[in-house]
Each structure stands twice: as structure tokens, then as C-alpha cells.
Amino acid sequence: MIKVIILDLWGTLVENGVWSPIKQVKNILGIKSPFSEYVVRMERAMMTEKYPTLKEAFENICKEFNVECEQEKIEMLIGMWNKSWMLARPYEEAMEELRKLGEKYKLVLVSNTDCFSVNQVLDKFKMREFFDNIFLSYEVHLIKTDKNFLKTVLDDIGYNVEECVIVGDSIQSDMVAAKRLGMKAILVDRKNTRDFHPKIKNLKELEKALEF
What we know:
Elements: E1 4-8, E2 14-15, H1 21-29, H2 35-47, H3 54-65, H4 71-87, E3 89-90, H5 94-102, E4 106-111, H6 117-124, E5 133-136, H7 137-140, H8 147-157, E6 164-168, H9 171-181, E7 184-188, E8 199-200, H10 206-209
């Protein structure tokens, strides 16, 4: 029986204010790695520590991929990243569905995220109140694909893997990570373009999908 819903933030509950900020970082810096490899390295470089400034966070990405930290590109990245969180908004149905789900289930938020954007968005839209626990990669010092991330979550909340389900928009970061641990997972595929089961188009479909 499912007692805990573990929800991803970006792309699941909240829409970025600009098109795919992570892909834009790759393009602006001219990083040639395949995306599946790039995204893991990029998130580990930027999202597993609390940096004093965004400049230092992006400089660490440059160091990770051995690319030149051109000041003009760093400034472009900072502007793009700040625009993304400033224009970010919860999806239309997200807040109401969180209220409903919270009446029946324990809700846990997880996110691969930097220390700058996530808190601004959570505070701006008063989203913290919906969650019993929040696990952010920069605080846990792990990203969701790291094998100990979900183990850390389970150990902290005190529930068994069979009692939990993860709901997210990334097959690699959410679905694969959950399956590796034996946890049930539901993909949020808002454009209905990916081949995965079970999946939902929005959070209004989630409660029915929980009837495994």
C-alpha cells in the first residue's frame, strides 16, 4: 500500500521560466559530451554543493568539462539562470492537486537543484507547506541518480520502499533511480511523447495511477 509520494520539482510541479536551462548551459559553453553523460556530470558539479555565487557554480562546471571560463559566457549563463527561476511557475494544476494528495499521503519533495533558484521558487509560491520532508541535492550532496540518494530519503522518513512511489518527469533521474531500488515510479509526460508505463500527462491523473 502506497503511503508516501516522492515528488520531483522541476518539470513535474514547477515549469522553468526559460527553455531547458540545463541544455542551454551545454550549448552556451560548447560542451561536446553526449547529453546523458553531460547532465549527470553537470548536476554533480553545480548541484551538490552550496556555492556563494552563481558565478562560482558555473566556473565549477567549466572546470568539470575542461572548458574556458569566458567572462561573457558566464554572465550570459547567470542572466539565463536567474531569468529561469524568476519566471518559473507551478503548473496550473499543481497546487490544488498537492492539497488533495496531502490529505491522504505523506508528500516528500526531491530535486536536483542549485542553492539559488529552488528556495526562491518554494518561498515565492509558498510550496513548502505541502511537504512533510524536502531533500535537495545541494543539501544532501548527492543527485537523484546517485545510488544513495533515495536510500537517504527512505532512511530519513522511516518508510519501506514498498510504501513509496516516486513521481517525476525524468526517466533517467527519477524512473531508473527508483527502479534500481525496487521502488514504484510514475512518469509525468506532459507532452505524451515518451514510451514508459505507467505515465500521466498531469497531476490530475496521479491518484488514479496510484491504483497499482
